[in-house]
Amino acid sequence: MVSAARSAGAVGAILIVSLVVAYFISKKKSQTKKKKKKGIVEAIGNSPLIRINSLSDATGCQILGKCEFLNPGGSVKDRVALHIIQEALESGQLRPGGIVTEGSAGSTAISIATVAPAYGCKSHVVIPDDAAIEKSQILEALGATVERVRPVSITHKNHFVNIARRRASEANEFALKHRNSQLNGKDSKQVNGYKSDGDNHSSLFPTDCQGGCFADQFENLANFRAHYEGTGPEIWEQTNGKLDAFIAAAGTGGTVAGVSRFPQDKNPKIKCYLIDPPGSGLFNKVTRGVMYTKEEAEGRRLKNPFDTITEGIGINRVTRNLAMAKLDGAFRGTDMEAVEMARFLLKNDGLFLGSSSAMNCVGAVRVAQTLGPGHTIVTILCDSGMRHLSKFYNAEYLSQLGLTPKATGLEFLAIK
Description:
The protein is of the alpha/beta class. It folds into two domains: about 45-70 and about 230-415, Rossmann fold (3-Layer(aba) Sandwich); about 75-180 and about 205-215, Rossmann fold (3-Layer(aba) Sandwich), CATH 3.40.50. It has helices at about 1-35, 55-60, 75-90, 105-115, 135-140, 160-180, 220-240, 255-265, 280-290, 335-350, 355-370, 395-400; strands at about 50, 60-65, 100-105, 120-130, 145-150, 210-215, 245-250, 270-275, 330, 375-380.
């Protein structure tokens, strides 16, 4: 009897264990199914937050990088492109078959060209001709129409952003004229708020063009919202709210504004900083309240101030997106520091990062040096080095600028 009871008990135990195992296997399968993404759009965001081991060990802080280069379009700008296109479709500014236009140094344009087809749209990009050539090659491969133009001041009508704005208007005029011709000259409704003048249209657009929408990443607050509603909350969750500081450079200002505002709204004690490259006036704006130093004042500032080898960051005006930022301070970064940092991270961490990501890591070390050991600092790893081969990773090009890397460690940031 005892033996039979024990046998029955053993069988019962086995059944229970089997049921438990089956439950967890079933649950895991269910969770796996839930994790499946419907198309490229759902694959954007939720990037991993990694510990940058070499920098963390060297500073005594936990320096964490948000791996935005793992987005489908290869950069943090995927989030921005997604929000801009979704909001434009919802508001009626853009319709399927329409063209999204943008003036971009590369990454935002690539993201728009990646996301737009998922919504049945096309993209037209105006890019400065001093941007790395591989960026325009990627854009063309993605099916975007690309215009490369000479860099000029934002106040000039032929600045790449202003040209992109005009292209959207021209696309609307073109679409309306084509629609009118189909109606045998009868009047028709406006297209996205633009009336046709009957004559002015562009051969840049396909005959089935359904109008244009200017993405306007610098002033469009969909940029800020992409990070306040996405990147910021992700970082908060990934750190369990236990972070001391965030730092990033600014181009449009959307990333640094959106990510800085979210954690500070949760905990005002969290410090947020800007890292600013050469040629940009934002360091002065944050630290002194003015865009230019006395030496750079109106009338003394050079017409062509020294620019930076880093791409997509640095600016001399406060955009609507940047105005949303809550910053506690700023640091200056140099091109040499960015170049050295990129090589250091590749050698010591296997991280192959673009120029703005390298500058962000320079900033993270500066914050660690300011706050001291024991703090958790987060920055953005915007894109990979794959888009920077012709300039930032070109030894001959760097040599011509006197930027040949020579450091063996972090001595370029005064760390032995």
